[in-house]
Amino acid sequence: GQNNTLVHRWWNGSSWRGWEDLGGVLKGSPDCVSWGANRIDCFAMGENSVLVHKWWNGSAWSGWENLGGVLTSEPTAASWAAGRLDVFARGQNQALVHKWWNGSAWSGWENLGGVLTSEPDCVSWGANRIDCFASGQDSALWHRWWNGTAWSGWENLGGYLTSGPSASSRRVNSLDVFVRSSNGALWHTSWTGTRWTHR
């Protein structure tokens, strides 16, 4: 909101409710995700560039939790199972950094490498799967994924980006990624389950 707090508006099934001020001091856009019914977890870059977290447990909002780190981009969050959260951002050395909730505790920060020139965006298309995307030093779209056992290396998907990517999944083993191209147009690439197609 105008005073750098998190503000919230929700649809109750028949109408939109008014704006709710959830406090905090945010240095950028938040990202929120749900891992189950009546649950929302919100993340943002807070003061001193740390990751901050606030959640709805079905009956009330928590206070703000400081999860540390030194972020140089807004965070992105994904969930591949009930009780599971994965949060990503660009770290101090422009690498992709990762922190996760396993249902009972937060991990430390994991460095996943790369040289990101945009904020990342990550999405899950199924249990134990996460795909992350960002612009690299060459302004191309770069991709790295977790397959349930290990992280892949970085894959260059080409293109020339003038924005950070936005990723979504419509079904299992399906991915759609959107970016702004060099001429200002919307550019789209999709994973069909067997190959990438560019439009």
The gyration radius over C-alpha positions equals: 17 Å
Overall 3D geometry? globular
Helix count from the secondary structure assignment? 0
Topology pattern, helix = H, strand = E: EEEEEEEEEEEEEEEEEE
Largest sheet: 4 strands, antiparallel
Runs with pLDDT <50, length 5+? Answer: none
Strand order of the largest sheet: 3-4-5-6
Report strand %.
35-45%
- What is the rounded distance between the termini? 35 Å
Number of strands: 18
* Share of residues in helices: under 10%
What's the mean pLDDT score?
A: 96
Describe this structure in words.
- The chain is an all-beta fold and 199 residues long.
- It is 0% helix and 39% strand.
- It is built from no helices and 18 strands.
- The strands form 5 sheets. A 4-stranded antiparallel beta sheet has the order 3-4-5-6, with no helix packed on it. Strands 7-8-9-10 form a 4-stranded antiparallel beta sheet, with no helix packed on it. A 4-stranded antiparallel beta sheet has the order 11-12-13-14, with no helix packed on it.
- A hairpin with an 8-residue loop joins strand 5 and strand 6.
- The protein starts with 6 loop residues before the first strand and ends with a strand.
Short description:
The protein has no helices and 18 strands. It has strands spanning 7-8, 20-21, 31-33, 40-45, 51-56, 65-66, 76-78, 85-90, 96-101, 110-111, 121-126, 129-135, 141-146, 155-156, 166-168, 175-180, 186-191, 196-198.
Write the SSE topology:
Elements: E1 7-8, E2 20-21, E3 31-33, E4 40-45, E5 51-56, E6 65-66, E7 76-78, E8 85-90, E9 96-101, E10 110-111, E11 121-126, E12 129-135, E13 141-146, E14 155-156, E15 166-168, E16 175-180, E17 186-191, E18 196-198
Antiparallel strand pairs: 1-2, 3-4, 4-5, 5-6, 7-8, 8-9, 9-10, 11-12, 12-13, 13-14, 15-16, 16-17, 17-18
